[in-house]
Amino acid sequence: MIGILLGHAFDDQIVESIYKNNEDYCLFSTGAVSQKYPVPYLQTLRIYDFAGTVISTDIPTSILVSRLKMPSKKYFYIRSLEWVGFKPLIYEELKSIYLNKELELIVSNKKDYDLIKSLFREPKYIVQDWNFSEIKND
To answer: Which of 65, 84, 85 is nearest to 75 (CA)?
Structure first.
């Protein structure tokens, strides 16, 4: 099973893409999931007991996932380079996530793949539309 850890704020498009493109998964978040899509959902606190594969979805969730002991595998799904507008941009903070050997990197497009590979390290996968079927078999 794959546990997908969303931040507090996310839109229905994300939940819809996860719902349409995946099987055998659970969403974790402190935010409320729309009942429009019948997805398995637990509060973020339950991630501490989750022993499957975990995918973080932003910098704060990646910090949390990097500290977890139970997951069998840990990934960081990079859909946008959220840190581009940070002022000040502190490379050491980014390095602690993007170079963390416990977190395999996943990007959503080739452009981000090339940039992340140049700045930090090579991402393991390019995953579009939240379709984690390839990772499930890893």
So the answer is: 65
Q: What is the pLDDT of residue 53?
A: 96
3: its two tokens: 């546990």
Residue found by looking up tokens 């079927």 in the block: 133
How many C-beta atoms surround the C-beta of residue 72 within 10 A? 10
How far CA 47 is from CA of 36, 50, 74, 118, 129, in Å, comes to 23, 5, 12, 31, 23
What number is the average pLDDT over the span 103-116? 95
Fill in the DSSP letter of residue 44: G
Q: Residue for token digits 């997951």?
A: 71
- pTM over 0.70? The answer is yes
In the structure encoding, which two tokens stand for residue 98, read together?
């993007």
Which of 127, 13, 7, 130 is CA-nearest to residue 65? Answer: 7
Share above pLDDT 90 across residues of the chain, in percent, rounded to a whole number = 67
* Cβ proximity of 49 and 70 under 8 Å: yes
Angle at CA of residue 112, ends 109 and 115, nearest 5° = 150
pLDDT tens-digit series, residues 86-106? 667 677 778 889 999 999 999
